[in-house]
């Protein structure tokens, strides 16, 4: 410090001398230019030296007031020196101007120089790029400014060189001489300010564009080097040395370099991680070395087989496996599109890339055969060259967060452009100071001329400017466009993209100033600013202020001005008003910012002076808000098993060891430890920052040093001595550390915390390389519940638990850290010998070690308690007596001591009996306040909300989330706040928008309840005096309830102690009702489901037996009716939940409770703290004795009894009068409508017979629908089984002629006829044992149809099983099949495609004809050639239909012209065919119409197969597969040239033409017929023999040769006819007749490229029959027009034809006297 002050004093003296000399020089009359220039330069150099010395002194000034005072004193001195310099410049203005030489002053001696004419220099144009302004201005001054020309001419030159933002800056200035200097000044102020140029160069360095990829050419590396050098030189010119920013820039550049270059740097760049100069020298050397290496490389033309940098794909890589049109997944090889593969859609982004890379697929189109660089596909979300499955912008958050690996390279984690890096400057004041933001009152001019007041915040920490949605709605500004913005909220590591609108705003305060602002919902929360002291404001008078700084004001920020316009508004002039306040001049007036002291009155202490103002573009995500309520599911939501982490635990068990003193473990590395780099440079920087912080607080520095020395003295850390002998084999990593102060701690007030998440230069941290391991902890709620059982509570904590486990020596260097000696300042290197706290794997290592140790101990109560109730390092246990507690305490100490661990901080509820063993009496246990003296739980939430804070939705949610109540003791009170928050959510206000008056009052009332809740004491133990094991008749009681606001459940334990029943509340859970409207009965069912889960969880936590009585209480009769009924009778929503409830709790455990006695009613509506504390029902439960004797009200039972009586009366009516029916079943087509109609009729009858008070209103109840169903069954039984009912009513069995004799029917209590069966002793329900007999008729049809729809269109077997669970229907299987067959929805999804028998072969294929007279065409490909990169080639296959020969032509595209050229080549060599077959490709369609131009006299007949029917062309598709198979096997992975490819195709053609046409018998060899015999007369690979004929050849010999050829050809055709034709299969098994659509039929058109539910419907317009008279193709009219399809591509939906058989079967079946259904069969569907 003293040395710095001496240096400043010396510089100040020299500066004084230079200023005095310059001042004296200005007073002299005659001054030369040289003297003036020398004096000014001397002053400027001395001034720069003084500024450097001043900065050195300021670095040592820790106290803010002292530093401000020093700056004020020396700033005044410096201002005086600057004034001397300014006066000298004005005095020497004419002297220092350059003398312009007239054009005529060139002497004769200069004439020789004019002979060498230089080329014309063209000045560059300037578009507003700040980094290019200095170069542009220097060139403009050299060529224009310093020439002796008029200012108007200079202005003209200047305007011609400007464009873009630069031209807009001077737009509006007339081209006149006076305006030239103004234009120059404006350009310099906007683009030439030094600080802005420096910022632009630094920004360009941080966002330096580097080509993507892992390998880069020398040219690209030179480009990177040139960009770096350009910015670095510019910054050095501006006085910024590379050392000032190298530590930030060097890691970024390294992360973007190729891997091999980065590896070379790592070999030599030890401890150079922040040295930019060394990196530039290294890059220069490395690039020159690579350049020299490439100079001697062999030219690519001579090394074709060497793999190039962008290797060409193999020639056959894009050939599909088959020619079928059905999509096949390239990942799992199943029949679906690759983009819809479950293995891809369910995988993470990294796994998707790995799977696609292994499958050899293009990342853009998911096809084989090419790479993404050669693909034209683009992502629909972002427009980049990748598939939508690989698009980060389109990926929904899973997971989470879930899913971006922390070890990803830094270049993948950089946010995209326009990312918001910073939020508005925080206005958080220190403890005794207020803060003032840079705000301004502005007037915005609307497009219609209106002037609207707004508040603007000027923030140099934001890189964009924003406007609130509310101001946009008021102003209605001009819309400019839309854009995408990525923002990263504070504490978030991943930017989130959102779309925003941009608007143009004009301000009345500033002339000719307009800006484009981005619209956001809210800029920030309202801010309260205190008035600035009057003495500070008086220093600015009479200058205009930008805002009202003299009065207290609540600021609602409407506009935020970021760096894009900040320096256009700020002029640069400033004035210091006080040590903490600075005023700056802006276009809106003088803005004041900084901090100022305040008096600490009691009123001020309770006020929020300046709340944080953070830019929140939108609020927390829905998943984040949902996670706030995860506490509601603790204890009732099962943990998902994680198999991968179990492997980590198994590896731990194999490696853990015990040396007799303590356990030694190895770190669970995840395979990335080899990539972990030495980060000592970064650790040294963090240590230097820590030293500066601790130097300001000596007491903290001393305590922190003591804590570190204690670790070393205890042997937990050791000093590292670097030497060759002490070489390390494992990874080396330095963990930064900092002190954490916890005044409430009883032992360690200050402790060091180590940062294992600090990243190295490659973006990798220690935690990124470690497994977190599985969670081995018991449930926190279970531990707390078991803690309440004991009469004597006992808690303890493992002393320095993590530090009691030793780390394997190979892993210790990963836990290094640096410390600085307080006395000498020397830096020492230490490393942990034990497991440190802060490592991601530390909790797992501790829990796994303790579990392993306990598994080796002998079984005992202490071991069992430690296993079940040890949560991390906190142990919560107890016993039934003090003696047992002492024994447990002693045993636990001994057990843990054998592991080298010590249990400390002992607390007990019976400290007097355990005197001498207990350390503490009060404190927190697992986050809950427990007073061991009173043995009660207490609430001290720690939520202190100032009285004058502006409540917002964000603040309400924050307060709710901070209230910690794992046991649910105060759930009704928390429920009140949740209901308030949900009501706020429904209003749709923004997160930081102020609440309404009513909402604010409700929230303030709830906050006031927090103070009342602090006085509430809740007994910890369940029992009154006895121990848990001594309690008798323990019962669990659960109460559930629901309201429109929410639903919840509470569990009580009831027991007998001393002959008296007692009850205690155990736990509770509650949730708010969904925002989507749900009926109250369904909410009651949700409450019952929550309660069933909760009571089972409590029974498991308290270790109660399965025989423990459980009682579940609900005040909803509807819910009880659902639970006690069969789930299959209800809709899916009800059935699913009833099924789960019955799985948890037996239906017999459910009972009805009156609403006034239900304690769960407090949960559903929320109550205040005072009301909750006053209500005795909450803690002790209701009057259980009265509840156990309670029966449902008389009127409730009377309703059920009346319905039963009504059913019996109706039964007697039906039996006595057969001509009358209660309801005509035949008129109904829906079972649900039928039953509900009858239920409403029965209610009407019952209400007519009842008093007004007993009448039912509202929706139908379950018991009413059941009564209606019984009545319907009685009606149909009476209609069909009259004789049987009559005999059973008289007590006689049914007659032997009855079809029901085998069923042994009997009458139940309601008079229904049921099956007796043999299942009376089973555990099935009554309906399943004795199903109701229902005759096969219209009622049974409606019943099965309704159940079919209820079961979501179940299949035949499932539907039969559900019907037989309650009913017995004769001929049920036939009836179910009919229902399934008549269901339109099922038929649409289950129907099979139509089909016909195989057609006879065309005559042209089985008639002798010259080769290639009848041909078929098709394409195969694409193929790739090495000499034509990126170009696709295709193979045109032409096959003969008669002799099955092939002809292959290579084409460069699928265009019509290419095909015509290939076809003409074929015709020139093989002849013009008479008939051509092909599919319906556009190329073939076009060729068919243009063949007449080329073959006018012999145009072939072109015949097309049916569209989308590749099997029609199977005789050429089969040969296409043969060609592909030969190509793949012969070419393999090679990349051929075009000439090579043509050669290979010709050879394949010869091979295929040499294949046998007939069966080849190996044992009896005979002549083998091939297509080549018809083309050449021999096999293609047989050498041609030249006949040695004497010359000249006679006519006789020629005739003999011709005859021999004719005989051979005839022999060939004979073999073709006898063997080839007759061996063709007479029948194709897969072509069998299926379906027969006719004109007018409704069909589905099959489309394998889309899901079945998207297949279009159509109506058959016309049918086309084949030669055999069968329908082969049909013309179908769809929504998009008429199309022609083969019958195999259609699914017939007509039901009438399919029912003809079923109707005949139904009429012939045995009927039991049902009424004949004369109505025609009808279609039906679920809709």
How many beta-strand runs? Answer: 49
Shape, per Cα inertia axes: globular
Q: How big is the Rg?
A: 46 Å
End-to-end CA span:
88 Å
Q: In this structure, how is the largest beta sheet organized?
A: 6 strands, mixed, barrel
Low-confidence stretches: 98-117, 300-310, 321-326, 396-431, 599-617, 627-631, 1194-1220, 1698-1727
Instruction: Quickly count the helices.
Output: 54
How would you describe this structure to a colleague?
The chain is of the alpha+beta class and 1727 residues long. It is built from 54 helices and 49 strands. The strands form 13 sheets. A six-stranded mixed β-barrel has the order 3-4-11-5-8-7. It starts with a helix and ends in a 19-residue tail after the last helix.
Secondary structure elements and pairings:
Layout: H1 2-27, H2 33-60, H3 64-91, H4 93-96, H5 133-145, H6 151-160, H7 165-169, H8 177-191, H9 194-206, H10 218-237, H11 246-256, H12 259-268, H13 276-295, H14 342-345, H15 349-359, H16 410-413, E1 419-420, E2 433-436, E3 439-445, E4 451-458, E5 466-468, H17 469-475, E6 478-487, E7 496-507, E8 514-520, E9 527-529, H18 534-538, E10 553-555, E11 559-561, H19 563-569, E12 570-576, E13 581-586, E14 589-597, H20 602-605, H21 622-628, H22 643-655, E15 657-658, E16 663-665, H23 680-695, H24 698-713, E17 717-719, E18 737-741, E19 750-754, H25 780-787, E20 792-798, E21 806-807, E22 816-820, E23 827-832, H26 842-855, H27 861-869, E24 870-871, E25 874-879, H28 882-897, E26 903-908, E27 922-925, E28 928-931, E29 936-938, H29 953-962, H30 971-987, H31 997-1013, E30 1017-1019, E31 1032-1042, E32 1046-1057, E33 1060-1072, H32 1080-1101, E34 1110-1114, H33 1117-1124, H34 1132-1144, E35 1150-1152, H35 1161-1165, H36 1169-1174, H37 1176-1180, H38 1184-1188, H39 1194-1216, H40 1231-1249, H41 1262-1280, H42 1282-1289, E36 1305-1307, E37 1313-1315, H43 1326-1329, ...
Parallel strand pairs: 1-6, 4-11, 5-8, 16-21, 31-34, 34-35, 38-39, 40-43, 43-44
Antiparallel strand pairs: 2-14, 3-4, 3-7, 5-11, 6-7, 7-8, 9-10, 12-13, 13-14, 15-16, 17-23, 18-19, 20-25, 20-26, 22-23, 24-25, 27-28, 28-29, 29-30, 31-32, 32-33, 36-37, 40-41, 41-42, 45-46, 45-49, 46-47, 47-48
């Amino acid at each position: 410090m003293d040395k710095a002050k001496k240096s400043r004093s010396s510089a100040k003296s020299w500066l004084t001398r230079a200023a005095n000399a310059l001042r004296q020089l200005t007073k002299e009359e005659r001054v030369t230019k040289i003297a003036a220039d020398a004096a000014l330069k001397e002053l400027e150099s001395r001034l720069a030296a003084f500024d450097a010395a001043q900065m050195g002194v300021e670095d040592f000034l820790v106290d803010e007031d002292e530093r401000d005072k020093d700056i004020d004193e020396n700033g005044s001195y410096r201002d005086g020196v600057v004034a001397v310099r300014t006066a000298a410049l004005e005095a020497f203005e004419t002297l220092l101007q350059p003398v312009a030489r007239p054009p005529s002053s060139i002497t004769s001696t200069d004439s020789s120089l004019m002979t060498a004419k230089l080329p014309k220099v063209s000045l560059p144009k300037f578009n507003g790029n700040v980094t290019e302004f200095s170069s542009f201005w220097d060139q403009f001054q050299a060529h224009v400014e310093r020439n002796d020309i008029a200012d108007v001419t200079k202005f003209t030159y200047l305007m011609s060189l400007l464009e873009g933002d630069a031209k807009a800056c001077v737009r509006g200035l007339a081209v006149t001489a006076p305006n030239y200097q103004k234009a120059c000044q404006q350009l310099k102020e906007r683009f030439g300010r030094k600080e802005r140029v420096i910022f632009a160069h630094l920004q360009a360095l941080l966002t330096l564009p580097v080509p993507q990829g892992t390998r880069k050419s020398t040219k690209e590396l030179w480009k990177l080097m040139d960009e770096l050098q350009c910015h670095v030189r510019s910054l050095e010119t501006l006085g910024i040395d590379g050392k000032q920013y190298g530590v930030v820039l060097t890691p970024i550049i390294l992360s973007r370099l190729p891997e091999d270059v980065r590896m070379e740097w790592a070999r030599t760049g030890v401890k150079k991680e922040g040295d930019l100069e060394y990196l530039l020298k290294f890059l220069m050397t490395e690039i020159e070395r690579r350049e020299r290496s490439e100079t001697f490389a062999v030219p690519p033309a001579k090394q074709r087989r060497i793999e190039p940098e962008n290797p060409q794909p193999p020639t056959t890589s894009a050939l599909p496996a088959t020619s079928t049109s059905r999509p096949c997944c390239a990942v799992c090889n199943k029949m679906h599109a690759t983009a819809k593969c479950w293995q891809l859609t369910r995988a993470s982004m990294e796994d998707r890339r790995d799977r696609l890379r292994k499958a050899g697929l293009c990342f853009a189109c998911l096809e084989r055969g090419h790479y993404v660089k050669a693909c034209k596909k683009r992502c629909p979300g972002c427009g980049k060259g990748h598939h939508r499955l690989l698009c980060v912008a389109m990926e929904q958050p899973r997971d989470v967060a879930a899913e971006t690996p922390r070890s990803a390279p830094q270049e993948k984690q950089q946010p995209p452009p326009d990312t918001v890096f910073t939020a508005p400057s925080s206005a958080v004041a220190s403890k005794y100071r207020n803060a003032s933001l840079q705000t301004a009152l502005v007037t915005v001019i609307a497009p219609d001329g209106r002037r609207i007041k707004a508040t603007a915040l000027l923030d140099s920490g934001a890189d964009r400017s924003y406007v609130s949605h509310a101001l946009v709605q008021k102003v209605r500004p001009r819309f400019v466009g839309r854009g995408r913005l990525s923002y990263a909220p504070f504490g978030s590591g991943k930017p989130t993209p959102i779309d925003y609108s941009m608007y143009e705003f004009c301000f009345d305060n500033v002339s000719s100033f307009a800006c484009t602002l981005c619209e956001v919902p809210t800029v920030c929360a309202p801010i309260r600013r205190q008035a600035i002291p009057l003495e500070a404001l008086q220093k600015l008078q009479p200058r205009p202020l930008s805002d009202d700084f003299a009065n207290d004001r609540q600021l609602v920020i409407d506009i935020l001005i970021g760096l894009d316009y900040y320096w256009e508004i700020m002029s640069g002039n400033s004035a210091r008003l006080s040590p903490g306040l600075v005023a700056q001049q802006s276009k809106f007036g003088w803005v004041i910012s900084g901090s100022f002291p305040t008096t600490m009155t009691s009123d001020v202490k309770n006020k929020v002076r300046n709340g944080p103002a953070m830019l929140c573009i939108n609020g927390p995500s829905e998943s984040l808000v949902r996670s706030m309520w995860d506490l509601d599911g603790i204890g009732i939501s099962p943990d998902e098993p994680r198999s991968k982490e179990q492997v980590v635990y198994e590896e731990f068990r194999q490696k853990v060891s015990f040396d007799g003193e303590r356990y030694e473990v190895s770190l669970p590395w995840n395979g990335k430890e080899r990539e972990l780099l030495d980060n000592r440079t970064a650790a040294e920087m963090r240590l230097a920052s820590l030293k500066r912080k601790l130097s300001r607080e000596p007491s903290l520095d001393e305590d922190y040093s003591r804590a570190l020395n204690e670790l070393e003295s205890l042997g937990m850390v050791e000093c590292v001595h670097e030497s060759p002998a002490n070489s390390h084999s494992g990874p080396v990593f330095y963990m930064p550390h900092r002190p954490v102060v916890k005044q409430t701690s009883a032992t360690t007030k200050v402790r060091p915390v180590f940062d294992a998440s600090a990243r190295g230069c490659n973006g990798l941290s220690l935690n990124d390389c470690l497994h977190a391991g599985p969670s081995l902890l018991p449930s926190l709620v279970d531990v707390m519940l078991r803690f309440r059982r004991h009469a004597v509570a006992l808690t303890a904590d493992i002393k320095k638990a993590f530090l009691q486990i030793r780390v394997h020596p190979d892993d210790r260097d990963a836990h290094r850290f640096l410390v600085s000696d307080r006395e000498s300042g020397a830096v020492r290197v230490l490393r942990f010998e034990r497991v440190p706290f802060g490592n991601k794997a530390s909790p797992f290592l501790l829990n796994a070690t303790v579990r392993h140790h306990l598994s080796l101990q002998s079984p005992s109560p202490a071991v069992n308690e430690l296993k079940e109730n040890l949560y991390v390092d906190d142990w919560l246990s107890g016993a039934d007596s003090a003696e047992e507690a002492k024994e447990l305490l002693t045993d636990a100490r001994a057990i843990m001591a054998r592991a080298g661990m010590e249990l400390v901080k002992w607390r007990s509820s019976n400290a007097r009996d355990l005197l001498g063993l207990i350390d503490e009496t009060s404190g927190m246990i697992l986050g809950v306040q427990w007073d061991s003296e009173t043995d009660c739980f207490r609430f001290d939430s720690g939520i202190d909300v100032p009285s004058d804070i502006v409540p917002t939705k964000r603040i309400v949610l924050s307060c709710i989330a901070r209230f910690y109540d794992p046991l649910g003791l105060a759930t009704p009170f928390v429920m009140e706040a949740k209901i308030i928050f949900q009501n706020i959510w429904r209003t749709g206000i923004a997160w930081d928008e102020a609440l309404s008056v009513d909402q604010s009052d409700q929230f303030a009332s709830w906050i006031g309840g927090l103070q009342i809740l602090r006085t509430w004491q809740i007994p910890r133990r369940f029992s009154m005096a006895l121990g848990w094991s001594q309690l008798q008749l323990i019962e669990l009681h659960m109460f559930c309830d629901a309201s429109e606001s929410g639903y919840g459940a509470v569990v009580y334990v009831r027991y007998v102690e001393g002959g008296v029943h007692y009850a205690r509340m155990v736990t509770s859970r509650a949730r708010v009702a969904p925002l989507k409207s749900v009926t109250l009965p369904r909410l009651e069912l949700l409450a019952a489901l929550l309660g069933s889960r909760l009571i089972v969880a409590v029974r498991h936590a308290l270790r109660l037996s399965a025989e423990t009585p459980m009682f579940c209480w609900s005040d909803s009769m509807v819910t009880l009716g659902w639970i006690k009924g069969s789930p299959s009778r209800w809709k899916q929503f009800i059935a699913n939940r009833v099924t789960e409830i019955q799985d948890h709790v037996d239906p017999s455990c459910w009972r009805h409770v009156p609403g006034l006695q239900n304690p769960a009613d407090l949960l559903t509506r929320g109550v205040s703290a005072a009301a909750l504390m006053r209500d005795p029902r909450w803690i002790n439960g209701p009057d259980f004795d009265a509840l156990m004797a309670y029966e449902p009200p008389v009127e409730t039972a009377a309703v059920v009894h009346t319905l039963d009586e009504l059913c019996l009366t109706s039964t007697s009516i039906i039996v006595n009068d057969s001509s009358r029916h209660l309801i005509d079943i035949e008129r109904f087509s829906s079972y649900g409508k039928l039953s509900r109609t009858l239920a409403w009729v029965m209610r009407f009858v019952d209400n007519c017979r009842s008093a007004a008070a007993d009448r039912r209103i509202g929706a139908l109840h379950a018991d009413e629908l059941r009564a209606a169903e019984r009545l319907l069954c009685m009606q149909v039984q009476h209609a069909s089984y009259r004789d049987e009912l009559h005999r059973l009513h008289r007590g006689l069995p049914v007659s032997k002629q009855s079809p029901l004799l085998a069923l042994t029917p009997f009458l139940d209590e309601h008079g229904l006829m049921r099956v007796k069966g043999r299942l009376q002793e089973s555990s099935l329900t009554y309906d399943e044992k004795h199903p109701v007999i229902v005759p096969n008729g219209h009622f049974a049809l409606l019943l099965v149809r309704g159940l079919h729809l209820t079961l979501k269109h179940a299949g035949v077997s499932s539907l039969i099983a559900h019907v037989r669970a309650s009913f017995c229907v004769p001929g049920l299987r036939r009836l179910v099949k009919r229902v399934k067959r008549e269901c339109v929805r099922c038929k649409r999804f289950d129907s099979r495609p139509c089909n016909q028998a195989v057609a006879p072969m065309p005559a042209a294929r089985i008639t002798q004809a010259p080769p290639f007279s009848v041909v078929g065409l098709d394409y195969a490909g694409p193929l790739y050639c090495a000499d034509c990169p990126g170009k696709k080639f295709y193979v045109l296959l032409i096959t003969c239909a008669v002799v099955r020969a092939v002809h292959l032509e290579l084409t460069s595209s699928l265009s019509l012209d290419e095909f015509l050229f290939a076809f003409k080549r074929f015709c020139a060599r093989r002849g013009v065919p008479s008939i051509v077959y092909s599919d319906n490709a556009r190329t073939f369609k076009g060729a068919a119409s243009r063949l007449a131009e080329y073959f006018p006299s012999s145009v072939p007949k072109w015949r097309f197969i049916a569209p989308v029917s590749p099997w029609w062309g199977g005789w050429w598709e089969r040969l296409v597969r043969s060609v592909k198979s030969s190509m793949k096997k012969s070419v393999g992975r090679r990349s051929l040239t075009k000439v090579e490819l043509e050669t290979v195709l010709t050879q394949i053609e010869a091979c295929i033409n040499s294949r046998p046409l007939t069966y080849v018998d190996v044992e009896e060899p005979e002549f083998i017929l091939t297509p080549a015999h018809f083309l050449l007369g021999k096999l293609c690979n047989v050498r041609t023999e030249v006949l040695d004929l004497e010359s000249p050849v006679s006519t006789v010999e020629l005739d003999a040769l011709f005859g021999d050829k004719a005989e051979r050809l005839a022999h060939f055709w004979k073999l073709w006819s006898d063997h080839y034709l007759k061996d063709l299969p007479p029948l194709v098994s897969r072509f069998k007749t299926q379906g027969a659509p006719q004109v007018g039929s409704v069909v589905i058109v099959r489309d394998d490229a889309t899901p079945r539910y998207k297949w279009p419907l159509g109506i058959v317009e016309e049918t086309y029959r084949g030669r055999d008279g069968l329908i082969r193709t049909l013309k179908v009219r769809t929504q998009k027009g008429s199309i022609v399809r083969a019958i195999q591509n259609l699914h017939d939906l007509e039901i009438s034809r399919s029912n003809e058989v079923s109707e005949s079967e139904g009429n012939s079946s045995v009927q039991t006297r049902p009424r004949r259904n004369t109505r025609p069969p009808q279609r039906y569907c679920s809709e």
